[in-house]
Amino acid sequence: MRSVLTAFIVCLFALAAGAAELHPPAQVTAGNSITIATSGSGDATFYLIGQSVASKRHVQAGTEIAVDSEQLERAGIYTAILCASDGCASANFVVTPAAPNRLSFLVHPSRVPVDSPNRISAVAFVQDNFHNFVLKSEAVKFSVLPKDGKEISATRNSENGVAWVRLSSAKKEGPTRLGAEIGHANEIRVVQQVAADACNLRIKASRAKKDFLVETDPVKDCSGNSVPDGTVVSFTKVDEAGKATVDVPIKRGVAKVELPVDGRAKITVASGVVTGNELEVAGGQ
Amino acid sequence: MMRKILTAEFAEKTRRPRRMGLRYSSILALLAALACVVLVRELRVLAKENAPRVQLHADNLGPRSIEDLTSKSIPRDYALAWQTMEQALEENRPGLLDGYFTGIAKQDLTQRVHSQIKSGLHTRYQDGGHKLEAIFYSPAGDVMELRDRAKLDIEIMDGGKVIYQEPVSIEYTVTMTPGADRWLVRELQASGGVKP
């Protein structure tokens, strides 16, 4: 019943639209001005409805109506309506994206441990100058620009306006620049590569007055990069008094702590899931 | 005999208010039932208007696979985005767009509402539902691209006069990004449209 009613209303509109007609181009590239031919005569009102526009102005039916490029920057479906004394006529037309010349470039994460395979993702959304998605396939050049290394690049074709790659981090810590390029657009993002988990964690103990001073060797990852200051190292002591754990942040590359010991004691060290060597000491010796 | 007549009259007098009471209560019950029917119908209409029907298909989604929670949030939040957009364009209230839109989509729609206000226009939608297909979910889970095939009856009004009315099927390319407690529409670009 509803569709019949709708069809009836549409027919009424079509009949009413018989006198004045609009002839916009079927397809327009974003950011271009157009003229719309009209038929009929007398005073009329012209409306242009689009994604970001809803304008109204008085025109003469039967003349060509100019539409500014500024009104046609956003891609999508536009409706042109001409209302004269004898009714309203309308026509739809499509504004398609212009040439790709802009990228919305997302890189994650901003900090990544060294030597992590496929840990970095780079996603580029292909757009024209007016932020419209360019949906047809376009080649996007991704590049990695290490601090003191040679540029590595790869090209990916966009699908539905998106191109993306997965990248592995280098073995050496430090910032690296990732780029994506299309047309005149060249977007750069910086990813900080930081040391991975500690590797070969070792401690040594020495006497300090009544207590023992337990200290790590310089804490490094498996690629030889210094683990950043602030990373927590846990020292655990088991002696006659029981078990005690002390968490200490790395300072200037090492972690150290003074531990009181009753009788014989075992001291172990760990950082995250990595464990180090074990020491046996005796208090009072 | 006289006594019998008196008793009958008395009985008749006592029955009459009872009958009247019964009559009124049955009318009241009938009215209440009628009101219930109308209310239920209105509520159904309201529910229909409040939440456009959105069906999400994520079978061909990649490179990241969709999480259970996300597969529920996306159609819910997209439906609410359309609901607020339709209301904003009908009532010319740009503030309604704050809830479910961000970035260029919000900028475009806000501009549209402001130019509607300037021109004295408003747009009314009859939402026939959305078939939403998720086509790209970034590896970091921070953006999703979708394709929406929407069926709409669009009515544009200048003041109280209808200047355009048409049922349309429009294909939109949509990007959504996660916000604090919901997914937000960042891009809504009509990429194709056909008359049904």
Structure description:
The complex is a heterodimer of chains A (285) and B (196). Chain A is mostly beta strands and 285 residues long. Chain A has one helix at 2-16, and strands spanning 22-23, 27-29, 34-38, 43-49, 54-60, 64-67, 76-84, 87-96, 102-108, 111-113, 120-127, 139-146, 152-157, 162-167, 174-182, 185-194, 198-199, 203-208, 211-216, 220-221, 232-239, 242-249, 256-259, 264-271, 274-282. Chain A is rod-shaped, with a radius of gyration of 35 Å. Residues 10-18 of chain A have low confidence and may be disordered. Chain B has 196 residues and is of the alpha+beta class. Chain B has two domains: 1-50; 54-193, Nuclear Transport Factor 2, Chain: A (Roll). Chain B is built from three helices and five strands. Chain B has helices spanning 2-50, 68-91, 103-119; strands at residues 54-57, 121-137, 144-158, 161-178, 183-194. A five-stranded mixed sheet of chain B has the order 1-2-3-4-5. Chain B is elongated, with a radius of gyration of 28 Å. The chains are: A mainly beta (285), B alpha+beta (196). The interface between A and B is large, with 41 and 40 residues.
